[in-house]
Amino acid sequence: MTKEEKSKLPYGDLAIIALKSCAEIAKPIDEKLSNTRDESSHLISVEEVRFSNGEGKVVINESIRGKDVYILCDVGNYGCTYKMFGFENHYSPDDHLQDIKRALSAIAGKARRITLIMPLLYASRQHRRKGRESLDCALALQEFERLGVKDIITFDAHDPTIQNAIPLISFENLHPTYKIIKALVTEENLLDIKPENMVVISPDTGAMDRALYYSSNLGVDTGLFYKRRDHSKVVDGKNPIVQHDYLGRDVEGCNVLIVDDMIASGQSVFDICNELKARGAKKIFVAVTFALFTSGPDKFEEYYKKGLLDRVYATNLSYVPDHIKEAEWFRTVDMAGFTANVIDTLNHDESISPLLDSTGLIRRLLNKNRSES
Predict the structure, then answer these.
(1) For residues 25, 28, 30 and 33, what is the CA-based torsion angle, rounded to 10 degrees?
(2) Full-model pTM
(3) Residue ranges of domains in the chain, CATH in brackets
């Protein structure tokens, strides 16, 4: 057997445990893998059982001995429900975390390797200590390591330095930038992406690196909104925003792309849209990895109808209700193919480094788009 033939051998038989929070995206991921490899389904039959008092267990109905196991879980999927004492309860991130641990416990050391794919990193906004407070994300990562996880895959982590909590296992922080830009260029075919006609906006200082990456690949300028907060008050666990101060070039007559890792309630987006429109911005687009809509979609609908917001682009890596997906102002960025490619590459024990840098792909996409327009 040649060295090239050996490199094409999988690390182990591929097995995907898709917890019900990821059932929707798991199907196209499995289909793409099966078509690429000319194999049958890799999904393992799993039951997530809830007892009437709220306790639960995970049952794996197939042998996974010696297999290369990939666990998929969306800790942000509040669409999953269970009955407890007769009440309908929606899953919280803590409920999903427990099911991940139950799945790892059910594997019981039989797998050859375990990779946890958690697109929305659990407790990613509780990643560092500023006082007498918990370190939820770090503790969860360390517990995964103790339970046998060898690789953790996440997307657009709020602060990727959290991987320092688990220095002895692999932690990969992936980005959907290429897929988002491709969706934007495809959907908005009349969008004029030129330095004089478009600006990328960072909603705060923490998202500036992301905005710079987008702007450098699109070949346009970057602007920043600085959040001035009232540090004498705490509302819903954080200091309320007093004002957004803008730093950057004039946006009058320009299309604007606001980029961030997630939308929670969307209040920052609404404030920035108001500020941009007051400065004469033309069209306003928002691109995020995770759209949580913690306060519902009504205000987004209102801003769209008023012409203050043109479109929101978000991936399908985390749960979005169907009625939002069907809204005219919302577009889904499909990440199933990319995730399948990551799984296939890792299963063959090859480096995913080529998948981490999408600069070349983005530039080829934009050059093609400009030549056709």
Answers:
(1) -130
(2) 0.92
(3) 3-174+336-351 (3.40.50.2020), 177-333 (3.40.50.2020)
